[in-house]
Amino acid sequence: MLKIASFLPHPPIIIPTIGSPLDLRKVDRTVSSLKKIAKIYAEIRPETIIVVSPHAPLSPELFLFNSSKNLLGQFLQFGDFETHLAFKNDLELLEEILSSLKKENIPCGIIESKELDHGTLVPLYYLREKINFKLISFSYSLLPREAHFKLGKVLQKVIKNSSKKIAFIASGDLSHCLTYDAPGGFSPRGKEFDQKIIKFLEERKVKEILNLNEGLVEEAGECGFRSLLILLGILDGIGWKAEIFSYEAPFGVGYLVANF
Length: 260
Fold this sequence. Notes:
six-stranded mixed beta sheet, 9 helices, alpha/beta, Protocatechuate 4,5-dioxygenase, Chain B, two-stranded parallel ribbon
């Protein structure tokens, strides 16, 4: 059964072995929020966490699930040679998910890679200090929005029918174009995108999110919109409420921490 769902950012700079003390002060609200989320997860103690990441291996026409028995992660590319994360894959639940997706004709596939991407690892960094859990990691696709929402609805059914306590994390950052020195350059529409996403979540306006102007989404330079669509599919028909823990953009990228 679904016990908790979250939308979490994934900037490696929030990890103490990567970000400098000055950088960490700039993202203090994000780090504090993630620590609060970790305490909530510790109280719930999910047995399995499912994470969709924008940076997991991507197929334009398939949702790819990692089928490796052991899932490992490091941050070598960010200069961190100390941090090592390791998880067991929940292969039993993964098999149920893949079977259900195929029955619903949702294009999906598997990859087998022990190495996890930072989009998966960063949201789990603070969580794994509090609890032990199995993990399922997958990527979204470039298929239409409706396919992502439908995938979420199928996941909801699988999770509901499971006797396990399950958590779902949609990993993603909002606009990458909020300042002139931002990774995606500057676009005035970046702030508009972030504000609308937060407002629509607070007001539970799912249709408005699903129908956001394509030009707005593209100009925002985001990487979390599709993750959010899957999350909303999982929550479809459930009496949910978005709790916004924090939002900040000290480096020109929108970091939203939200719990459902």
